[in-house]
Amino acid sequence: MNLPAHLSAVFADYLAAADPAASGIPSPDRLPRLPIDAAGVKARPFIEITITESDEPAGHQQLRKLEMRVTLKAGIEPAAGDGPGSKRMSREQAETLAGKIRQRLLDTESLKAWLATLPESRRTGWALQKTPRLLNEERELDEDSRALDIAIPAKLLVLVSAGL
Amino acid sequence: MPSFDSVIEHGTFPDIDLPVNEPNLLVNSVSFKAAREKKEFKGADSKAVERVRLTNPILTISIDAFISTQAGLAAMHPGKEVTAGLENFSTAWREFDPTDGVLVFGDPEDEANLDDMVKTKFDVMHYPYVA
Question: What is the interface pTM, i.e. ipTM, of the complex?
Answer without folding.
Answer: 0.71
